[in-house]
Amino acid sequence: MDELTINKAELLLEVIGQVEETLRRMGSGYAAARQATLDSPHVMKSKREVTGIEASYLANGLAQNIQEREHELRMLKGLHLPESPSRVVLGCVVGVGPMEGPVERLYFLLPVCGGMEIPLGDGERTVRILTSGAPAAKALLGKHLGEDVPLPPRPDHPTSVRFLV
Known about the structure:
The protein is an alpha+beta fold.
């Protein structure tokens, strides 16, 4: 196994930081779309004058996305990271790869933010966030260290759970 140490708490803080930054950008976009809705004339002069309607659709969509990101943020801030689990559970960082080779992929199993990638300090590797609904997470959850795991998309080529952090 190669020399790789990952601080889960710092990694979680990085995920939280990315969600907060996304929320900040969405808030700015929502404010602009809401203002465009308010600034548009309330009486359309022609059937093609739809700027206000489009801005209101955009504001409503952003408001829904903001609510979802706020929910994710609350879940992440309330998440308890397991100290030294005997099996793969939510909150674990899992490295997978052949027992004799290097770690091929790194996953951080979280209840939200699936698909997000967090770069590690070395700049060469990233940790991909998986939620429990992802096929790879379903294959990993409950497995023990060193256990062979058939991961999608190549279940005929099993890899091993290399380490848990």
